[in-house]
Amino acid sequence: MTIVESALYALIGGGALLSLVRLARGPSLLDRVVATDTLLVIIAAGLAVHAALVQDPTLLPVLVVVALLAFVGSVSVARYVGGMLLRSRTGDGRDVGLPVAAEEREASS
Amino acid sequence: MTALADVVAFACLLAGAALCLTAGLGLVRFPDVLSRMHAGTKPQVLGVLLVMVGAAIRLDGWANAWMLLLVAAFQMLTAPVSAHLISRVAYRRRHVRRDLLLVDEFAGTGHQDRVYEGDEPGDAPPENPAVRPGG
Amino acid sequence: MTVEPAATRLRHQVPLVVWLVLVWMLLWGTWSWANLLSGLLVALTVLILLPLPHVIDGTRVRPVPLLVFLGHFVVDLFTSGAEVAWQALRPGGVHRTAIVQVQLRADSDLLLTLVAEATSLVPGSLVLDLDREHRVITLHLLPVRDLADVERKKAHVLVVERRLVRAFGSAADVAALEGTRREGVPAP
């Protein structure tokens, strides 16, 4: 059973690490949103696995919160970017406050 | 708790954990935002369901099973909504590798920003300065 | 805001109240009269403060087609889940992807939402856009081998739609679906 337990933690931890890699590398905001969403769900799965292994149900309410947090987070960021695009008159959202690209800042200075 | 139930529970947990690993792998290996959405949100739905089933078998007691069922139901209800919102914004900002697309029946219907042409990050400058807006 | 008969309003609100009370009880984890009463109070407060548009016009639930749909749905979940997982694991990188549009035949808010949710939950297809007026759904498909494969996956969406209409659609919806099939409009 200890082999199965360490295999479970290794699989979950590997998935979480890989999504952290995507979170760090980006390259765009939406990549990071997708990575955060995945990371939170993997964390929820990890909590459930831990609760199942030690047979301790105290973690379950945390599970509900984490599962809903992933949804609220990604929806609010997607709506933020989408709303910026809708209100933008130039199409790229720069006139309503979406960030200026680092490359452009370097070129103009 | 019988041995058979334990074996089923661990099989479900292992399969779910393996799907979480493939979600991470796909997130790193897939080429554009839309493909990464598939990797991120899809093995998860199945993976989370399997993990919840395994945990529900291990933690006997109806109160625990109901709460795990609730988590699974929330996942099934919310995953398509957030996936749709993100993918629509991603398509409009052209986070799509066009060279990997076999068919695009959605193109040319005015759902994309004109100035972005490749798989550039969302905050990159337009590729074609001639049609740059406002400049 | 239009005034509507109390019976209609009741019919629309009762399922929502039941669902909210159920979630409340599941969150507490135990059954008791105190939970039931406080849940009813919370559900009614939520519904009065945040009213929702009505979507369940003329809907009925047929148990046997619903079971058929759920069975196929779970099988789809497993087969395409394995397919997408293999795409992430296989050494050669990913197959090509495709963006396709499918003309749906159902014409009710609830049915279109259900079709979009079901196709979105099954791995390998992602809903990009849903044109309510023309009933056109736009999907992003992940593992695509060739054009024949694209056509097969588009046909599959229509199959899912038919199962859903049979499970949830009103009599008129089912009749409309069968009618388009008999006229020889491309159907799976």
Automatic annotation (TrEMBL), chain A:
Keywords: Cell membrane, Membrane, Transmembrane, Transmembrane helix, Transport. InterPro entries: MrpF/PhaF-like. GO terms for cellular component: plasma membrane. The keyword GTP-binding does not apply. The keyword Aminoacyl-tRNA synthetase does not apply. It is found in: Cell membrane. One of its GO terms (molecular function) is sodium:proton antiporter activity. It holds the Pfam family MrpF_PhaF. This is Multisubunit sodium/proton antiporter MrpF subunit. It comes from Geodermatophilus tzadiensis.
Automatic annotation (TrEMBL), chain B:
Keywords: Membrane, Transmembrane, Transmembrane helix. The chain crosses the membrane at residues 6-28, 65-87. Pfam families: PhaG_MnhG_YufB. Residues 112-135 are annotated as: Disordered. It comes from the Bacteria. InterPro entries: PhaG_MnhG_YufB. One of its GO terms (molecular function) is sodium:proton antiporter activity. Belongs to the CPA3 antiporters (TC 2.A.63) subunit G family. This is Multisubunit sodium/proton antiporter MrpG subunit. It comes from Geodermatophilus tzadiensis.
UniProtKB/TrEMBL annotation, chain C:
One of its GO terms (cellular component) is plasma membrane. The keyword tRNA-binding does not apply. It holds the Pfam family MNHE. It is found in: Cell membrane. It is a multi-pass membrane protein. Belongs to the CPA3 antiporters (TC 2.A.63) subunit E family. It comes from Geodermatophilus tzadiensis. This is Multisubunit sodium/proton antiporter MrpE subunit. InterPro entries: Cation_antiport_E. One of its GO terms (molecular function) is monoatomic cation transmembrane transporter activity. The chain crosses the membrane at residues 12-31, 37-56. Its main location: membrane. Keywords: Cell membrane, Membrane, Transmembrane, Transmembrane helix.
